[in-house]
Amino acid sequence: MKPERIDDRSRRWMSIAGSVVALSVWLSSPAHSAPSVNCSPDNSVTFICGVTNVEDFAPVPGTKWVIGSDLSTASCPQGYLYLFDTSKKTGSAVQPSEIAIRQDKKTYPDCPGPFDVKTFGPHGLDLTPANGAHRVLYAVNHGGREAVEVFSVDVSQARLRFTWTGCVVAPTGFWPDAVAALPHGAMVVTSLWDPTDPDRQKKLSAGQPVGALDEWAPGKGWSVVAGTEGMSGPNGVVVSPDGNDIYLALWSGKQVARINRSTTPPKVDTVSTGILTDNVRWSPSEKSIFVGGQDVTVKQALDCFESSAANCDVPFRVSSYRADRIGIFPAR
Fold first, then answer.
1. How many CB atoms lie under 10 A from the CB of residue 57?
2. 74-115 confidence digits (pLDDT tens)
3. What confidence tens digit (pLDDT) does each residue in 179-220 have?
4. Domain span at 158
5. Of 189, 184, 208, which Cα lies nearest the Cα of 149?
6. Residue 90 to residue 80: CA distance in whole angstroms
7. Does the bond joining 265 to the residue before it have cis omega, within 30 degrees of 0?
């Protein structure tokens, strides 16, 4: 089960139109105050500057756009969604004035109302693959509440248009990290840890059971995804179109897990990555997945996360796990 190695570079990564591109983070922008950094190309890698702490990406199929999230921090408390133009290689923040509000109280009856734009902290993202002019964007939010914010995205215009429609507040003791859409308006959400657990870093460093993978469905609420109990640091997540297969990055477990829910109980397979497995994304062919993570210790990664430095010297690795080479990952 040896993965195909793609690249080793600095701290974060993303997939745009089928390319894995290193992206410098914590950069200055009109919306933030941050130290200036060198944005010159590094060998074959170029950088998109003027964006801050980009955490996750959601490519919009059939368009030039990729939606990004701006994970806010104590020094930059207001986060944004970003729009990356893959044709021009530019990025710009989606301003609060560009987001319409139209709450769907029927689907999200427990949502207390729109998020606070001044403390918005988007983290993990997922965009439904539905055809037509409108898609649904799910965005984990740490700003003011631990929740998944839901947006309708109009892809028919020259620039994407966003309408906030509701939210799903996370359960107690749940620190949401990544989200993936399921059929019929449901979703799975990872929790890296319990934020109230004072020993969470110690447990993560030891690869002990920490965090959770939960499912939310309209009219049913939250439930634990069977077969995922006892895993260490659930992080990135993607789901097959039929919802039967969940591919889960186990950060402190240094693994990728496949949970096949077509059987009872679900069949769980894992493969070791050798890194703090952070992000998971489908490749353009949809027959393999890109898996990225930090090649350091848990403490080094968390120290970087909490740092106010413009960049951290934290190497990472991105690998491609192909369906025709690794039996546990079937072709989509």
1. 22
2. 667 789 999 999 999 999 999 999 999 999 999 999 999 999
3. 999 999 999 999 999 999 999 999 999 999 999 999 999 999
4. 4-322
5. 189
6. 15
7. yes
Rounded to whole angstroms, the maximal C-alpha distance in the chain is 53
Is 142 domain-assigned? yes
Dihedral sign from CA coordinates of 171, 172, 173, 176: positive
Of the two residues 160 and 36, the one the predictor is more confident about is 160
Which whole-number Å values give the CA distances from 30 to 68, 76, 204, in the listed order? 17, 12, 36
What is the strand order of the sheet 187-191 is part of?
Answer: 176-181, 187-191, 212-217, 221-224
Closest CA to 57 of 307, 292, 312: 292
Residue 328 lies in a domain: no
pLDDT digits (tens, 9 = 90+) for 212-251: 999 999 999 999 999 999 999 999 999 988 899 999 999 9
pTM, to two decimals: 0.87
How many structural domains compose the chain? 1
| Domain of residue 308, CATH code | 2.120.10.30
Closest CA to 178 of 284, 256, 100: 256
Instruction: Give the mean pLDDT of the chain.
Output: 85
**332 within some domain:** no
The answer to whether position 331 is within a domain reads: no
